[in-house]
Every structure is written in C-alpha cells, then in structure tokens.
Design goal:
With 205 residues, this protein is of the alpha+beta class. It has three helices and nine strands; from the N terminus they run αβββββββαββα. The protein has a five-stranded antiparallel β-sheet, sandwiched between helices. A four-stranded antiparallel β-sheet has the order 6-5-8-9, with no helix packed on it. Strand 3 (60-66) and strand 4 form a beta hairpin.
Length: 205
C-alpha cells in the first residue's frame, strides 16, 4: 500500500470530518445524484438525504427531508465564526447573479449552517447551474465554496418522490398579477375602488 503524503493525508482527514458532520459515515465525494436513507429506531420514520460536495473549496451541501420536515444545510470540516444569536453571516451567489447576504443558524458543533428557508433555497438550486457559498471560518477569514448543481437535476426528483414533497423552481412559479400604478386616469374596477371622503362637513342651516 502506497504511503500517503502529508498533503493527501490532510485532505483525507478533512473529507472524513465533513462527511461525519453531515451524517454520512464513509469518506467519498457526493455527486448529488443518489439519495441516502436512515430510519429512526423509535418510531420508524425514514429520513432521506441528498449530498453534493463542493467542486472548489471546502463544503458539502446537504438536502434532507422526512414526510413532515425539510432541511438544507452546508457542512464544513472546520468551525464557522459564530455570529449574533447563534447565526452565521453567509453570502450566496447563483450563476451570474448578485451575491445575497443572509444569516443562517449554526449547528451545535459549529461545523454546519442551516438555511432558514430550505424550500426557498431548494427552488433556487433547481433553477441554477452553479452556487457560490461564502462563510466566515473560525479564526480563518472568509472562505468560498463553489457547487456545480447539474447533478441535482437527477437527485432532486428522487428526493421529492421519497418524501412526497414538491419543490417548484423559481422560474416555474406563477407571477403574481400586479395592478397598474402611477399617474393617469383611474376608473372603478380592476382592483380600483370608488373614492371615499375622509371628512364630510355638515351644511349650516
């Protein structure tokens, strides 16, 4: 068996740390295609997970669901810098869009951060090709992980079927009808109601 170089040994150790945080007990790169399941010994509830390793940087995206719950989080091999009220300051960027800053709750061991709106995140993931995820590492500065989301086209339908849930891509969501606004003549109808006077002076007799 060939000896591991210091660099390879450090990489293997970091990968094992990431996968143990996410609940996967073996070291391999997760491609976002296959779902993994666990069963609660007490009530028999099944939980399904879909994992995707970062193609650049340190991080693993995990989508997890049961029939009554949906979670999305990013796990790391090192602790994140804790922010106010147990939330970490992160930035997300999908494709060529603008970065968006959000605050994500931290795990108890500070090695993962959870999306506050997992369904919304999954909708964004299903409509994008790449995601860049920036977080603050504990005493290590800000780090960026890049995820290639192509394989989620294969994995997400499996996760939906397993948990009997539906994730609609943002591009597929119907746009809310908007009423006209601004200047011009307004007529009663189409969302415009008749004007009501705020003050009615009584005539003097």
């Amino acid at each position: 068996m060939a000896e591991l170089t210091n660099e390879k040994a450090a990489l293997l150790k970091s990968l094992i740390g990431v996968f143990l945080v996410a609940g996967f007990g073996h070291a391999q790169l997760f491609n976002g295609k296959e779902i993994h399941s666990t069963t609660d010994e007490m009530d028999g509830t099944k939980t399904y997970s879909l994992a995707l390793s970062a193609t650049k940087g340190n991080g693993m995206l995990v989508l997890r669901c049961s029939p009554k719950n949906v979670e999305a989080y990013v796990a790391f091999d090192s602790m994140v810098e804790s922010g106010d009220y147990g939330s970490s300051d992160i930035r997300l960027k999908f494709d060529l869009g603008k970065p968006a800053r959000e605050w994500w709750p931290e795990s108890k061991d500070y090695k993962a951060v959870f999306a506050p709106n997992p369904e919304g995140l999954i909708s964004q993931l299903s409509a994008a090709k790449t995601m860049m995820f920036e977080h603050a590492e504990f005493h290590g500065g800000r780090q960026v992980a890049t995820f290639d989301l192509a394989n989620l086209r294969i994995g997400l339908p499996k996760l939906q079927a397993a948990c009997s849930i539906s994730f609609k891509a943002e591009s597929e969501q119907p746009e809310e009808p908007r009423e006209p606004f601004g200047g011009g003549i307004f007529r009663v109808g189409g969302g415009v109601t008749a004007p009501v006077p705020l003050f009615r002076p009584e005539p003097e007799y």
